[in-house]
Amino acid sequence: MAKIGDSVKRVGIEDRVSGALKFAADLKFNNILHVKLVRLDVGHARINAIDTSEASQIPGVRYIFTSEDMPKPMPLYGPFYDDQPIIAVGEIKFHGDPVAAVVAETEDIAEKAAKLVEVDFEELDGVYTVEQALAPDAPLVQDPSIRVRKDLAQTNIFEDWQYGWGDPENAPADFVIDDEFNFPMTTHFAIEPHVFIAAPDQDGVLIRSTVQHPFLLQRVISNTLNIPVSKIRVIPTELGGAFGGKGYPKFEPLVAFIAMKLQQPVRLRFSLEETFLVGRRTSSSIHVTAGFMKDGRLSFMKVNADFLMGAFSNASPRVVAKAANAGCGIYNPPNASIYARAILSHTIPGTAFRGFGAPQFMWALDSIMDMAARALDIDPLELRLKNIPNRGEVFLHGEKACDGDWKEGLTKAAEAIGWGSPLPENRGRGLGIGVKTPAPATVSQSMVRMHHDGSVTILVGTTEMGQGARTVMAQLVSDAMDIPMNRINIINGDTGVVPFDSVTASSRSTVFMGNAVQRACDDLKKKLVDLTVKYFEVNPETIEFIGGQIVYDGGTINYKEVLTAHYGGFQGEVIGLGLYKEPLLKDHPLKGGVSFYEVIFAGAEVEVDKETGFVHMKKLVTVGDVGKAINPLAVETQDEGGAIMGLGHSLMEHLIMDRKGRFINLGALDYRIPTTLDIPEFFQSKLIENMDGTGPSGAKGVGESGIIPIGSAVGLAIAEATGVFFHDLPLTPERVWKGLQDAQVSHSHMGKNFPQDDEGGKKG
Length: 764
Hints:
Layout: H1 13-18, E1 33-38, E2 45-51, H2 53-56, E3 61-65, E4 76-77, E5 84-85, E6 91-92, E7 100-104, H3 107-116, E8 118-123, H4 130-134, E9 157-165, E10 175-183, E11 195-201, E12 204-209, H5 214-225, E13 232-236, H6 252-262, E14 266-269, H7 272-276, E15 283-292, E16 298-310, H8 316-325, E17 336-344, H9 358-376, H10 380-386, H11 406-416, E18 427-436, E19 443-450, E20 456-460, H12 469-481, E21 488-492, H13 509-536, E22 544-546, E23 549-552, E24 555-558, H14 559-567, E25 574-581, E26 598-609, E27 614-625, H15 632-651, E28 682-688, H16 710-722, H17 733-746
């Protein structure tokens, strides 16, 4: 029997490691048509005419869709705001915005025909930076008529948010520090590119897609194509990585429309380069003003954040709103103001990305803390410990109190990298803190079916994308019913079969769906108790579930005997249902409160080659406040995976855009991600288990947190090694080298603004 806290083998691991697992691109269908998109190599342009005549003559081309083939007015879609057209109409708003879709009998034919589609267009001025978007004469990215915030409709500010408490404008301070920090656009780089498959299904549509949130996609398709939800079935395939990039609808509305129009299955498969043009992490500029007393205690924080969200909303407004709500991190100023803006631009739409805005804020906040520590001559660890809340202390006003012993976690991270011990020349250590909150006011439902032989099938809406959610759910049922894992099957994701789940995101699955599964088991056990009492006249007060049997004071009865007594041999099943949801709070800015805090700490040690600017990672440690690890090995590797991913935006990853808004480093050769060669010499993930979460056995969510503090820990280790604070990630060798050269020339002091470098950021 698998118990909570056991590092059991992952469900389906054999197929994953052997290559037998079928991803979306591996699925074979008869009579399926293939779609290729036509794109322009510009960032913003007016479409004058589209000539498909030559492309249409190629044998095997079935149809070429443009905006002229779509309903009028053009349907708009989005997960939170309906502002993105199914296909570009009138103009393209970002590099990669498709103007036509070629449908052919093979992918090769579709690709050949797509190159022959001629587009007469006029390149337009675009806004590609925050400064350009906010300029008084900036062209508007979106038509004011579709904007929800009418007071902002004549600007490129999509939405803004204000949070705070106390009186930061009048709070006393012995020392004030003021600076700005920038975070780059990055791509998700899941190994498996996006695939979208749609087929007519009676009078509805069936979609197979690389999507994390099948029920959300079902709703969006219903709204966009005006089809009842009951007529839409979404089957997410098992994903080869996602990280938020496969969370929200992309081209499913387009392939669904084509499939229904042609009454034939269609498939759109992207290359890795095309996947870069689908979504990205929202870049940011975050300005922090912080006041401290002489002893290092915070008096106030003022945080102003601008996020460059792209041409359409996608999930960006939610990213900014949620991250800004915790815009002071776990630092605990008695006075605070947080103002954040999501700003439209003619760029690839920003979307959810592991950490959901928190890495951007923490890079700025942790940097300010280290700058203050140096100015006040206080150890950075000591300064943080002075400003971290104790368990039960309210630090995010209006929200749940601190639900962990966070000082313990930070101290362990520091100890693990030898904090305070002497370092060789050109070495430095840094600390980072990560915090985020889960999606509020969401719902998870589950079903647990016990069959006539006592085996069990679990039905959940959680998508499996490599995080091991199926293993956790099966482990929870094995623990609750005390049956072996090999007698449990799990069906997940298929909206035509499983109960509703809001999203597979926000590190919420173990808590929300885990609670729903446990409650389904409780419901199942209650029904089994009732049947046992009815047919075997057993005192219910004495019943326990042990070893896959019902144990009572007079003996044991196995599950099969109970079902046979009720239904007869080989018939029927007992079904348990479970529901978990957090309350909807209409007056809350996010419509719901915090269920748990996902908090993690990181310590890094680096060595910097000052001749080249190259950063060599010596040590990297994370310490996660996880409440309870249902499967400790899975939790540790989730944190490790997040940390390695965080090395990307810390040291190398950033999308590079030219002056015309075109991204010029698409694909694996020109966009570098961490490999095994970049893993630190000493690399460890530690867990703190105080059983203080809201999930099963006190679990909290994990998965996203590992990435959040890495930019801070690495960047501040580099600052200690070089004596120079940097303001812009990633800290590429070129950026570090230039910062060191400028520091030698200007004798710059910490906390001052620095001139711009060639990569668009401030020099350290």
